[in-house]
Amino acid sequence: MTKARLFRLWLVLGSAFMILLIIVYWDSAGAAHFYLHTSFSRPHAGPPLPTPGPDRDRELTADSDVDEFLDKFLGASVKQSDLPRKETEQPPAPGSMEESVRGYDWSPRDARRSPDQGRQQAERRSVLRGFCANSSLAFPTKERAFDDIPNSELSHLIVDDRHGAIYCYVPKVACTNWKRVMIVLSGSLLHRGVPYRDPLRIPREHVHNASAHLTFNKFWRRYGKLSRHLMKVKLKKYTKFLFVRDPFVRLISAFRSKFELENEEFYRKFAVPMLRLYANHTSLPASAREAFRAGLKVSFANFIQYLLDPHTEKLAPFNEHWRQVYRLCHPCQIDYDFVGKLETLDEDAAQLLQLLQVDRHLRFPPSYRNRTASSWEEDWFAKIPLAWRQQLYKLYEADFVLFGYPKPENLLRD
Q1: 111 close to 381: Cβ distance less than 8 angstroms
Q2: How large is the C-alpha radius of gyration of the chain?
Q3: Sheet of strand 239-244: strand arrangement
């Protein structure tokens, strides 16, 4: 009996010592040593996107063995999906409604980095940090610490441990193709046992499937009480980036794609309540198709009323397609290394892939050019009352200021 007790005691002490050793090693060596292609502060220039094969195990270092042990010890494993094959995504037929709304242009573009791009990034980050530290700009959640962000609000932060990258995706800002890039970099989806290497070969419906990405909100399930600590380590070591666009133009784009196209989910969840509350319709068709045939569509004015209605967020937070960027990506709690903009997407994408040192192996996919241009703002807001426009600006002011977009004075005065 005594020997059994001693054995259990040594087992408990040994386990505790091993956990302490892992934590100390992580703090001193950093996450960089736990993954291939990741240096102390930036990714190595080594060959990204390794091809799986019988020699792959021989390439793993002792450090990756430590990482594998950590995952097994904490009862976590990364699952990869063997998805059915689909051909490269094709644009809608010319003249179709979807093409009209989205404005597809699938021709490849060769963006060249200008010598001023480094300075441009420094300016964007300086503006962001400056206003986060400046008390003159106040908005909800600005002052809270990273530890105070609820786990449910960390779902937009996608992690690629292979190349040391963290991407905060913002809907309506080229996020579909950036998610594709993250899938290729991380190798998180398999087709017939092999990771995707061409971003455009990844079917669109799988791109937005949450199971295709490792996001911060999943860390608790993987790492338990160590999750916040590991998040902070990765935030310190990895390259963190996001892409933004003019807030009002993003709203117009969200309205067009979700309410001008037949979308059953958005019709039932959002259009029906909007039509009842703001258009005085009491009897509505059960489907978006029937509603469109009957000429029953949400107007842009109805959409603005919905956003400004104080009861809207008492029922549920804004949908991610029109939720403010500062609420999706927490730019005052996370020090982003790269701030891209849709207005300069081609140049910024090329610069970012170079920063991640994957530009020789991967190009940002050619994608549609959304014709929802800033020049359209006056037309879209022409029938929106001035008071509503002013209230809407206050609602999205933080996104305008933090990311250096000029105040749309022409829309905010008579």
Answers
A1: no
A2: 24
A3: 157-160, 165-168, 239-244, 338-341
- Strand extents, DSSP E, 88-212: 157-160, 165-168, 189-191, 194-195
What single-letter amino acid sits at 5?
Answer: R
Find tokens 């949450």 and name the residue. Answer: 210
If you average pLDDT over residues 320-335, what whole number do you get?
A: 98
DSSP 191-226: ETTEE--SGGGS-HHHHT-GGGS-BGGGHHHHHGGG
Asked whether the predicted pLDDT for residue 16 surpasses 70, the reply is no
C-alpha to C-alpha distance for 253 and 255, rounded to whole angstroms? 5
State the CB neighbour count (10 A cutoff) for residue 103: 15
- 3 state DSSP class of 243: strand
User: 340 forms bridges with which residues in the sheet?
Assistant: 243
Query: Cα torsion for 42, 133, 403, 362, to the nearest 10°?
Result: 10
Domain positions in the chain: 115-246+324-378
Stated as kind and residue range, the H or E segment containing 17 is helix 2-29
For 297-395, list the strands marked E by DSSP: 338-341
- Predicted confidence (pLDDT) per residue in 265-310, tens digit: 999 999 999 999 999 999 999 999 999 999 999 999 999 999 999 9
338 in Cβ contact with 355 (< 8 Å): yes
User: Structure tokens of 300?
Assistant: 């842009």
Partners of residue 54 on adjacent β-strands: none
Percent of the chain clearing pLDDT 90 (strictly above): 65
- Are the CB atoms for 87 and 191 separated by under 8 Å? no
pLDDT value at residue 19: 59
Average pLDDT, integer, range 27-33: 36
DSSP state of 319: P
CA angle at 76 for the pair 150 and 231, rounded to the nearest 5°: 40
Q: How far apart are CA 255 and CA 303, in angstroms?
A: 7
Q: Give residue 357's region: left, alpha or beta (phi > 0; psi -120 to 50).
A: left
The Cα–Cα gap between 230 and 152 comes to 17
- Length of the chain in residues, anyone? 414
Q: Is 38 helix (H, G, I), strand (E, B) or coil?
A: strand
**CA–CA gap between residue 230 and residue 154 (Å, rounded):** 14
Spatial distance between the Cα atoms of 396 and 36, rounded to a whole number of angstroms: 40
Which of 236, 228, 207 lies closest to 42, judged by CA? 236
Model pTM?
A: 0.77
